[in-house]
Amino acid sequence: MTDKDADRITGYHAHVYFDAGTREAARAIREAVEARFPVVMGRWHEKTVGPHPCWSYQIAFAPEIFAEILPWLALNRRGLTVFVHPESGDDLADHRDHAIWLGPSETLDLSIFG
Fold first, then answer.
1. Exposure check for the chain: N or C terminus, fewer CB within 10 A?
2. Separation in Å, CA 22 to CA 2, 52, 63, 75, 95
3. Which overall architecture, per CATH, does domain 10-104 show?
4. What pTM value is reported for the model?
């Protein structure tokens, strides 16, 4: 097995999963993240999108803030599941092999990656 260089990671995505009953908790997390961190917020999806089995929105962030934002999300996720993955250029591996789950994990639809 060959070690992979972490310098391949150009960024991270955190996907906050929610449903109709947890919409307000998700909104509160979104507002707090936007106010606290230099991130790019993705669209609010009240339907499943891509490989994600739940309603969600994406938080895109640079590797430089990983050590700050991940612990914050872990402690402030309000009971919601947050799926985090790197952006290394290999979408399938990033979602399947390099994933970090805060809260219970979900089953992703990886068939979209071919």
1. N
2. 42, 16, 28, 17, 24
3. 2-Layer Sandwich (3.30)
4. 0.94
